[in-house]
Amino acid sequence: MGVQYPPPRGCPVPSVLRPVCNYPVGVQYRPAIAMSPDAEVCDHWPFTGSAGVADRFPVTDLQSTDERLPARDPKVQYEHIIWDWNGTLLDDLDVCVDVMNGLLTDRRLARIDVDRHREVFDFPVETYYRALGFDFSEESFGTVASDYCTRFDHRVADCRLHDDVEAVLGKIAAANARQSILSSCEQGSLIEAVRSFGLTGHFGAIVGQADQHAKGKVAAGADLLARAAAPRQRTLLVGDTLHDYAVAKALGIDCILVSLGHHSTSRLTTECESVVESLADVIAHVGA
Q: CA torsion 227→232→236→242, rounded to 10°?
């Protein structure tokens, strides 16, 4: 059976396990949850999930189908490229600042500009909200985060992809290196956003989080690597924040940061030596 998206009618999919299509590497799984008796068996959906999925879909139940991979171009330095989404592939900086200013105005807090955002934006994202003056003794962080995410989801169509996204993803795919997304976004919103920009087919895994709190993604990244056949020394994470760099260090993989998103070049270079100005520059590092 080929991969289908959306899934066949009547085939329920857990919210943290969504189909990804048109990718040469799949993962077969034996569902650990009950499916309706009339549900069509969907046995070739590549893995997409978030931290904690391993509890319900053990590694022994996820069988890599690497034998179906075409030979990787030997010039390519990395076998597996893990992309951050917001700020790295998706140019959402202005929309994020605009949405945040809506929340700040509603609470009679000082508005911010892009420079201020890039100066204080951080993970866990609750730290960022506190830096902007939110008082979580008056309303919970979960309430504020939900408000932000709802507004942002309604504005995703106002965002655009960064320059060269499709060309870069295509070159890496042509070299037969696998690609994944690792994001701090809530899983359902992430899947829908990637789909809306027509990029789903580039990725063998799209990994988000179980909630909207954006606490970080080390656990989800470790879960992803546990299922990837590529060795860590041949895995690269591409992101736009120092959190991405910290995640890469924690996972023991290489990292390149692009100065297009939520942290400025001056902030990125305080910790990371590999900082580039465009996605096209990533190709030189990958060798595709």
A: 100
Classified by CATH at the fold level, domain 27-89+161-286 comes out as Rossmann fold (3.40.50)
> So where are the chain's domains?
27-89+161-286, 93-158
* Start-to-end Cα distance in the chain: 31
Could you tell me the pTM of the whole model? 0.75
For 105, other C-beta atoms within 10 Å of its C-beta total: 11
Report how far residue 11's alpha carbon sits from residue 8's, in angstroms, rounded to the nearest whole number. Answer: 6
The answer for residues whose C-beta is within 8 angstroms of residue 288's C-beta and 6 or more apart is: 73, 75, 76, 171, 172, 174, 175, 177
Residue with token string 């189909």: 19
Cα–Cα distance measured from residue 122 to residue 56, given in angstroms and rounded to the nearest whole number: 31
pLDDT along the chain (288 residues), means of 10: 33 33 28 24 31 31 37 73 96 97 97 97 93 94 92 94 95 92 89 94 89 69 88 95 95 96 96 94 82
User: What is the full DSSP assignment across 199-229?
Assistant: -GGG-SEEEEESSSS---SHHHHHHHHHH--
Residues ≥6 apart with Cβ < 8 Å to 171: 283, 288
> How far apart (Å, rounded) are the C-alpha atoms in residues 252 and 236?
10
